Amino acid sequence: MIRQVISIGLAFVGIIIGAGFASGQETMQYFVAFGSWGIVGAAVSSLLMIISGIALLQLGSYYQAREHLSVLGSISNRAVSIILDVSTTVTLFSVGFIMFAGAGSNLNQQFGLPLWVGAFLMLALVLISGLLDVDRVTYVIGAATPFIFLFICIATIWTLVQAEPDIAALNIASQDVNTTLPNWWVSSLNYTGFNVMTACSMAIVIGGNFLDTKVAGWGGLLGGVIYLILLMLLAFALFFEVELVNGVDMPVLTLINEIHPILGILTAIAIYGMIFNTAISMFYALGKRLTKRQPKRFYPVFLVACLLGFVLSFIGFQDLIGFVYPILGYMGIFLILVITVAWLRGRSKLTVEQRVRIQARDLMRRKMDPRLRFSTAQQHELAKLVAASAVPSEVFEQKLTREVSDELIADKDSGFKEEKEPINDD
Predict the structure, then answer these.
(1) CA distance linking residue 305 with residue 280, whole number of Å
(2) Which range scores top for mean pLDDT: 84-98, 130-144, 193-207, 216-230?
(3) Quick count: other Cβ atoms within 10 Å of Cβ 42?
(4) Which of 83, 146, 234, 363 is most buried, judged by most C-beta within 10 A?
(5) Which pTM does this prediction carry?
(6) How far apart are CA 212 and CA 292, in angstroms?
(7) pLDDT of 339-363, one tens digit each?
């Protein structure tokens, strides 16, 4: 169970903390711009994200979702489901083309290259990757994520240790940070909404990979706590150095370069990797969504979307985050309301389903473990539990069999032999 919780938690925080977070630009405009009250906003936003994350993951687990529409369609009416689906599609495109802008800014700030060079290189990488095994490519580039966590921790802790903050002076300096948001509490809600919009699809699918809704919930809690720690470290560090980082596209890169130029180069490379990972993920998912009924048209649609995104990226990284992200955030607030209401209303169903799954899993373990006895009465009880689950009986039994098989295979003393015939997900 602990291993599963850690796995879910790390996966969840990985989809929340994207290239915009790693650059520090989001934190500047959403929180540092409001001074010390912005720090309070960062804490509130983190707590709201923990609740939203638990809800998303548990709903995904409850419905055993393989894509977000199956859950959104189940918890809302058709009109709301369509609105949310369109909003999610808009989010994919918007975040995708902002990554082209971020790629240009990243190489410009660190190496002095023209903005179009970094953006064009990113466009080329994304277009080539669209022809390849995207899962394999993003897995390799995704290896940069732990390094980003490390660099953020190094930069923020170093800054906090060295800082001798004058809060009154910092609050005055923070007023010069450009933001399109009106105040700290709206900003806090908006940032949570933005993160939910970007994380919704993948978080639901992650939850759908686990039968145990309780494990999914604990994973969301762990991921949310990690996110809270990282966001608070980053918010405090950027606030304490607001005069140094204000106006730059990549504030974290500026902090890192203050420690050592070599660390700055490594961080720039890692951030570029994260930007690529976010960009290919967004445009690939967008292409698949738009060509769901005509899969053969995937690459032409993918190509057009990327080229259009490349053109829009020249609006500028800071300006795009300042105007596009808040719009997505307001749409996300609506999504949070829908998800939270469905989650709260369904708490009793979640509890009942959790008991059914735990009991069924225990019986399936007894049935498959060669060292244990399994009676006819227990077989009847298992059949009743499988039929009582909210998950279709065939799918539920297959998932139970798979989970128990994995456990018994890992237990070298069980004497269990794996079935040669693969289990079908469909």
Answers:
(1) 11
(2) 216-230
(3) 27
(4) 234
(5) 0.84
(6) 30
(7) 888 888 888 888 898 899 999 989 9
